[in-house]
Amino acid sequence: MKKILFILCLLSLTKFTFGQEKRVISKIDSTKTPELVLIQELTVKAPIDSVWNAYTTKKGWENWAVPLAEVDLKVGGHIKTNYNEQGKIGDSTTIITHIINYVPKRLLTLQAEITDNFPEFMKDDAKDFFNVIYFDELENGDTNIKSFGIGYKNNPKYLSLMNYFIPANEKTLMKLIAYLEKKK
């Protein structure tokens, strides 16, 4: 069993999968706190302005993440999204993410409202969940994005939840890459 876990760890740490460079690197860190931190990092071949707009505008969100979005970019503002094309912002399938703070083109701190659509065990921990996203403009004009999902507990329920979040987030971030790199 240990041998299988070791091989799986090696495969997850490699930068190349089946001859292709892996564009989104995900890892779970639990070394500094009793909580899990989901770290996801990618570099996109696009200028910082385009990346920032993808995260902070209605048009940006609707071009890579969801069919419906509403953004009120300010401290205390929100990003409301809906994955249901037939839905509308404000219906029961709307996800509301609060903007806790931001530094333009550098940092965005978000906190999602936990609704009935989330697993029951997350509801007691809702106040602890944050997503801190750093944007770094590189010398060559590319942009590095590093996202920290904070507040997950280090227990089997949350570890199982990570099995869903990691591939789902990676798939969505690959859509971000495709959108931004197509714009060039």
TrEMBL record:
Residues covered by the Activator of Hsp90 ATPase homologue 1/2-like C-terminal domain: 45-145
Coiled coil: none
Gene3D superfamilies, sorted: 3.30.530.20
Transmembrane segments: none
SUPFAM superfamilies referenced in this protein's UniProt entry, alphabetically: Bet v1-like
Assigned protein family: Belongs to the AHA1 family.
Name of the featured protein: SRPBCC domain-containing protein
Source organism: Olleya sediminilitoris
